[in-house]
Structures are given as structure tokens and as C-alpha cells.
Amino acid sequence: MGRSPCCEKAHTNKGAWTKEEDQRLINYIRAHGEGCWRSLPKAAGLLRCGKSCRLRWINYLRPDLKRGNFTEEEDDIIIKLHSLLGNKWSLIAGRLPGRTDNEIKNYWNTHIKRKLISRGIDPQTHRPLNSTTAVAVTTTAIVGANACLDFRNSTPPSKESTNSINETTNNLCMPTKDNSSSVHDTKCNSTTTEESRPTPPPPEEENAASHALDLELSIGLPFQSNYTKNASFNSSSSAESKAFFDFLRPEKATPSTAAVVVARAMCMCWQLGFQNQVCSNCQSYNGLYRSSYC
DNA sequence: AAAATGAACAACCGCAGATCG
DNA sequence: TCGATCTGCGGTTGTTCATTT
């Protein structure tokens, strides 16, 4: 069957945009707003594919873009979010106002990757480069546990996994003083097996992962919002898993969805900025409940 | 000064999910 | 319910600029 091409390729320009093309696109969007990228080129008098127009606008012409170098703080946020989300550039970009997914992706590939490697950290796994065995074992363990909160998988949580998340929510926790534990220590109080514990990373990784960084992913909402108080959470609710993914998209997230999601997926230690100490509840440094709860 | 090399960034491509009729 | 279409995402490629030899 196959799909029709997004545009008539024979009559479209490719390559770098000219100033005139940029101006036409800006003028059109100012007058008519975004939307219907397919018909936009013709309407705006551009010999470009709709996708190309969209990309140009989003990555380069949008007025709210923040150009210029990334700050150290942005670096830390990107690293932290990447460790949670993987290559979900659009989600990461959603947490960095003024930055685009493409920009972050490029920046990751050209700067941060190298930075992490020079620190002896695998940029994909965020673990020490020489601990591949431990990583493999850990990964297996997590997958075996249905990876209930594996953000690196773009598939929304299954009903079962959402259930698991529910069971671990609203538990206030405070960090322990166990500073001897590693960043990724998995002293899970349930079924995590001994062999699933990863090798403790070197102190350097702690910096890289920036555990002390409070990203305010909770948007500062209290747990006891009306939603969280009153809603009878049906763990198999698709609305809830939708809320989770909406949360990761700021333009879609509402205060209620954010509160719900944070309450369900993140431990309180995350919100309180205790990520530099192992938490007695979630048993991790990153505020994420371990998959062993699943 | 010129060529070679590497880094940075813009843009393209193909795919998957969402939406609509 | 299903197919067609649209949109957005992530990976990859191509081009430009800077640095090194």
C-alpha cells in the first residue's frame, strides 16, 4: 500500500533556508498561527515540504528559543533527565524552556557524551564504563521485573505496571544516613536479588548524575491536592497512565496530572532534593521506585 | 597559506502513533 | 473498524566553521 509522500518532492527546495524563506514562514505563522503543516508551504508561498517548515520553525525561528551556549546547570539537568528518560529528546526539551529537542540531541552527541566518557561513564547507561557485567545483570533483573518504571521505553506503562506504581505511592520517606551506599545501590526491601545490585559507581559519577540537583519535577505541588486526595485511583486506569505521560509534556500537563504522576512515580525524597543520600523508602538516590516493586 | 581533520549544528529521512472520515 | 492522512520523534547525514599540521 504505502503512504503518499508528505509533499511533491519534485517542486520543493531542500537544504539551507534563505532569509527570504525564513521571513515568509515567520510572517505566515504570525498571521495564521501554527498548524496544518502540510498546507502551510503552499499558503505561505514556500517551495518547501511541510515537515521542513515545521522543523525550521520549531528548531530555529520560534521566538521563544534561547540561543547560545548551554549552562552548567542545563548540562546537569540534561544528564539527569537522560539518565531517567533515555533518548527522549522531546521530553527532555520540554523541561528546558527555550531549548529544542534537536538542539539538545546535538549537544548531547557533541558535548555531553564526550564529557561523560572522559569521566569514565557510559553515556547510555550512566554507569561506569568498566562495569558492563554488573550493568548487564542489572538490566536483566529490571526487565525481568517488567521494568515497571522504565522511562527509557516509550511504551506507556502497562496496566500491571501501573498497578505496581500505585502500590508504592504516597509513602513519605526520608533519606538515611547511609552514605556508604552507592548512587545506584539497590537495597530494595522487596525482591531485588543480590546479583541484581550494580557495582557501586565511583564518586565521579555522583557528580555526573547530579543527585543533589533538585529539578523540581513536581512543579512544587503538594501531594495532598484535591485530585490525589479525592480521586479513587483505579490503578488500571488508562487516564492515569496518560496523565503520567502528559506530565512529561509540560504543554499537556496540568497541575493535577503533575501531582498525581509525581506522587505515583517519584518518591518524596526526589521532591525534597535528598537525592544525594540513599532513601529509606525508595531505596535509591534518584527518587524512582525500583522495579522490584512490580 | 593551504590542506586535512574534527567539531558543531542544521536539515533530512523514515517510522510510529494519533486523528479523521 | 479500517484505511488514509497528518504530525511528531529520533536517528542520521550533510554542510559549515574552527583548529591543527
Automatic annotation (TrEMBL):
Residue ranges with Low complexity bias: 160-171
Give residue ranges for domain HTH myb-type: 9-61, 62-116
Q: Where is the signal peptide?
A: none
**Subcellular compartments:** Nucleus
Would the keyword DNA damage turn up in this protein's UniProt record?
A: no
Q: According to the lineage, what is the superkingdom?
A: Eukaryota
Disordered: region residues? 152-209
Q: Which residues form the Myb-like domain?
A: 9-61, 62-112
**Main location, first listed in the record:** nucleus
Please state what the protein is called: Uncharacterized protein
Please report the organism this UniProt entry assigns to the protein: Buddleja alternifolia
